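thread: overnight batch results

M.L. [08:02]
morning all. the overnight job finished for the chain we discussed friday. pasting input first so we're all looking at the same thing
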Amino acid sequence: MATVFNTDFPGLKMVSRGKVRDIYDLGESLLIVTTDRLSAFDVILPTPIPGKGEVLNNLSLFWFHKTSDIIKNHVITADPAKYPEEARKYADILRGRSMLVKKAKTLPVECIVRGYLSGSGWKEYAKSGTVCGMPLPAGLKESQQLPEPIFTPSTKAEIGLHDENITFERTVEIIGRELAEKVRDAAIAVYKRGAEYALSRGIIIADTKMEFGLLDGELILIDEVMTPDSSRFWRAASYRVGEAQDSLDKQYIRDYLEGLDWDKTDPGPALPPEVVAEASRRYAEILDILISP
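M.L. [08:03]
and the structure it wrote out:
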């Protein structure tokens, strides 16, 4: 399949072009197309990653199915032959990188679950002993597994702006206590299911971000689930407490960008061919590890 940076389908109504996904309104449903765009530090980079969209789409479909007994999700089908007629003519582009989904009202919070101390969570803990304002036991080290997974939500920022970590009580203020508790419990349950399965494949899911929506008043899982864009994947065999881990996810790109003289504002830098190739390889590898028979 050819690399896809943007889509433009005459006859289909585009309602959103996000950091990675193009969304079309098909009337009673939405068509989500996962492109090969890459964002880092909330900036869309000019260089696509070949195969990335297919990895995100197929891994999300895998997890949606695997967690459907925990919480319903928005997927109708990922078979272009079953899409509405006006979308079927674009099947060659859509196959493998799209899904037809139910229309849900997206909740205005990003739902992050952390099972290990890494990234921004580690940086905050090293300074204050907390993660998103939640006190944690003293003496934890970088990449260490937490006693129990924790729910650390954030705001959902527009493109180009940064998500802001918020407390659970702030989440309650935004969406109400009953719904906030349902979201927290569902997010942790989905993470635990994924983490247990991934570990059986030799992969640690250190943390992940997911989104929820309301459909006819019922909470459902939407967007993407436990992909290398939304999660940290570490090889269990080489896992070492007290240091940063080599990962099979977007962290590889973040690490490369941290070494550049770039202020993390738009426009982002172009990626060299060798970095693109390695990123593409890592994305393909995690998909193969997790879903191969």
